[in-house]
Amino acid sequence: MRPRTLPVGIAPVIVGACAAWREIRMLDAPAPCLMGWFFAATAICLGVSVGLQIAANFANDYSDGIRGTDTARSGDESATGKPRRMVASGLMGPRRVLMCAAVFAVAACACGAVAAWWSQAWWLIAFGVACLLAGWFYVGGKHPYGYHGWGEVFVFLFFGLAATAGSQYVIARTVMVRSLLAAPVSRVYMLSMWPSLGPVVPASWGTTWLGWLSATVVGLNAVAVLMVNNLRDVDDDRVGGKRTLEVILGWLRSWDLLIGICAVATIMSFEVASYEAWWWGLAAGLLLPAAQAWLLVSVKQGDYRSALAAASHAALVFAALDVLWIIV
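Now predict its structure.
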C-alpha cells in the first residue's frame, strides 16, 4: 500500500475541498444540509483518490515483479535501503497481488459511482475509467508509458490537476444539487424537468482559477514524490530496462529538474497565498521552502527515506495551510 506516499492521494482532495468551500459558503442553503453533504462528498472523493492510488501501487508491484524489474528489491529494507516488493520477494504470489489491486480498484469505482450520482455529473464515470486505465498502463500492458519516461506527466495530470480540480467540482456540485433538492416543492418540480441539472446549477459551480492554481502546486509536489522514488531506483531501473525519466536524463539532470520543480511549486504556493490572508503567505513562505529544502538535502545525501517523507510532508503542509485558512 506504500503508506508513506498516501499523502499524494489525500492532499489533492483536501485542497479541492477547500477550493469548493470558497464557493459553497456563498450558497444560500440550510446549514445542516450544506455541511452534511460537504463532508459526505469529501469522504467519497477521498475514497476514490486513495483507492485508485493503492490499486495502482499493487498493480505496479505486480507488473514490475513479473517483468523482473524489482529483482534488487526482494530483500529486507534494512539491508537494501529500499522498500521490499511483494512479488519480487515472493511474500505474495502475483495473482494475489493483482487481486488486491482489483479490490481497491472496485472500491474506488464504487465511490466514484456514488460521486457521479450525488453530483448528477454522469460523465465522471468515463473520467474514472480513464483514471483506471492510466493507473494500469503506467507499468502494465505490453507498452507501459512508465517505462518510457512519461510517469511524471501521468502523476501531474491525475494526482495533481484531475484529483484536485475533480474533487472541487464534485464537492461543490454535490452540495449545490442536494441543496436544490432540499428546497421548496416548487423548485423540486423545476428540477424534475432537467434531470441533468445543467440549466439549474450555475456554470460557475465547479472549478475556479484558484482551484486550478492550487491543483498545479499539488501536482508538482506529487511529481517530486515520484522523482525521489525514481532517483532512488535509477541504477536498478537502468539494469532492468525500465527507462524512467531519471534513467533517460541521468542523475545530474534529474537532480536539476527536481530543484526546478521544488522551486516552481514554492513560487506558485506564494501566488496561491496572495489570494489568502497575510499570515497564510507567511506560513507558506516559511514551511513549504523548509520542506523542499529538507527534500533536496536528503536526496543529495542519498537518504531517500527522509527525502520521501519530506516530499509527502510538503504536500500535506500545503493542504493543512488551506484548511487552517478556511477555519480561521
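The first helix runs from residue 7 to 24.
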